[in-house]
Amino acid sequence: MIMIFGIPGPLLFGQLLLGLINGAFYAMLSLGLAVIFGMLNIINFAHGALFMMGAFVAWMLLNYVGIGYFPALILAPLIVGAFGIVLEKTIISRLYKLDHLYGLLLTFGLSLVIEGLFRNGYGSSGLPYRIPAALQGAVDLGFMFMPIYRGWVVLAAAVVCLATWAVIEKTTLGATLRAATENAPLVQAFGVNVPRLITLTYGGGIALAAFAGVLAAPIYSVNPNMGTNFINTVFAVVVIGGMGSILGSIVTGFALGVVEGLTKVFYPQASATVVFVVMVIILLTRPRGLFGKAA
Amino acid sequence: MFGFSRPQLIAFLVLLVLIVFLPFVLYPVFLMRVLCAALFACAFNLMIGYVGLLSFGHAAYFGMGSYVAAWTMKVWHVDASIAIALGGLTGGILGLGLGYLAIRRSGIYFAMITLALAQMVYFFCLEAPFTGGEDGIQQVPRGFLFGFINLSNDLTMYAVVAVVFLGGFLTIHRIIHSPFGQVLKGIRENEPRATSLGYRTDDYKLIAFVLSTTLTGIAGGTKALVFGIATLTDVHSSTSGEIVLTTLLGGLGTVFGPVMGAVVMTSMENYLAQFGAWVTVTQGVIFMICVLAFRRGIIGEIGNALKLKL
User: Fold this and answer.
1) What average pLDDT does range B175-198 have in this prediction?
2) Nearest-by-Cβ selection for B292 from A94, A104, A283
C-alpha cells in the first residue's frame, strides 16, 4: 500500500475525491450566486432551497412519472428554472429599486416557505434515490477504487461550470450580459431587452442550482434540509472568492472542497469549520476576496 | 429622561403598565419568553436599525450567552445575577472577535460573513464537550438572586426578567439618543461623509456591534435561566432568521417595533406549535409580505399613520 505523509494512499485519495465532490457543489452553487448577484444585485438566499427542489423534482419524476436519471438531469433544471423565472417575474422584480438587503430578506422568506412545504409533504428523514444502472460500480485506478458515480459527478460539474464560463465570456449573449452587469441603462439604450435578460439570468442561475441538486440526489438522500446544509458553507465560499469573477467562483469552489477533504484526513474534528477558518484568514489579509474587485 | 419624546414616553408608560399587570392575567412563563425575545430583538435592532448593518448571525451570541449562563449555573452554582452577567460578557467578547472580522465588509457581504461566522460557532457548539451536543444543557436550576431571592417562583423570576429587559431597553434607548448614537445614524446615512468628518467609522461600528452582542448574550443568559435549558436551537441559523423577522415585522429602526414583533412572533409560535412545519411556512410568508408590502413594520406603520416617531 502506498503511504503518503503516513496516511494510506487509498484513504487520502478517497477523501480527496469526496472533497472534490463537495467542491463541485460549492462551485456550481457559488457560480449561480455570482451570476445572479452580478445581474440582479440580489443575494439569492433561496439558492439552497432551489437546489433541494432540483433533487426533489428528480425524485418525483422517477417515482410519479417513471422518468429516469438522465432525462431528469435535463428536465429538473428546466422545471425549477421555469419556477425561478415565475418567481423573478412576479415577486423579485418588485425589489430592484430598493436596498439590496430587502432582496436578501425576501429570498430568505422564500426559502423558508419552500423548505417548509417540502418538509410538510415528505418529512425530514430523507428519501432514497438510486444511482442509475449505467453509473453503478467502481473502477480500479491502480492507486484507489473509484465509484463511477462519484467520478461522474466531478466530471459533469466541471463540464457544466466550464460551459457556463464559456457562455458568459465567449459568446455574444454573454458579452451582452456582462455589458448589462456593468451598465444596464446604456445597454437598454442599444435596444437590448434588459428586463428579459435579467429574468433569463435568474432562471439560468436557478437551473444551475437544480442541476447540482439532481447530481446530489443519489449521493445524499433527498431531504428538505439538504440545501440549507450546503448554502451556509457556500456563502463562506462566496466571501472567500469574491463575486467578481466567474472562473474565480469555480476555482474557489473546487479548491475549498479539496481543502475540506484534506482536513478530514489529517484533522477530522476541524473538517466542518475549515472553510470558515479560511474565510477568517482571507478577511484578515484580503477583505475583498481572492478574485473580488476592490470596493 | 433617556431622550424619550412625548409620544414615546406615553408609549413607554403603557409598556411599563402592561409589564407590571399582565403577569396577573397571562401565564408568566409565556411573558418571560416574550421579554427575552424582545430584548434580543431590541439588541439586534441596534445594528440593523441604527448602523444599517444586517447581522444574519445573532443566534451565535444569543446561544453562547445561553450556554455559558446555563453551564456556570449548573456546574459552578454561581449566583443568577453572575450567570446572566457572564452570558452578556460571553456575547460581548465573541462579538468583539467576530465583529472585528465582519465590519471589514458592509452591505450584503456583512450579512453573509456574520451568517458564516455564526455557522462556525454552531459547528463548534456541536462538537465541544461542555455544550452536551444534541442534548444541550438541561435541568439548570434557577437558583438564587444575590444569594437570598429564591427564583423558583415564576412571579419572582418574572420580576427579574422584567428588570433585565427594562434595563436593556433603556440602555439601548440611551445609546441611540446619545452623541455616539447620532454618529451611528450618520454612518448609516452616509459613511464616506462620516469618515471625511473625522469619525473613525470602523471603531463606531465595532463598538455598536459589541454593545448589541453583549445585550444579546444577556437575553440568551436570561432565557437559559428561565427555562433551565440551553440547546443547539439557540445557536442555530434558524434563530438568527427568526430574530430578523421579529424585528422586521415590528419595524426596523423603531424604538418599540422589536418589542411588538416579539409579542406577535412568540404568540404565533405558541399557537402554531401544534402544526409542526407550518410554522416555518407561515414565517416565510410573513417575511415575504413584510418585504413586499409592509416594509415599515407594525409600529412603523402605526407611527406613520399617526405622524409620530415611535
Assistant:
1) 92
2) A94
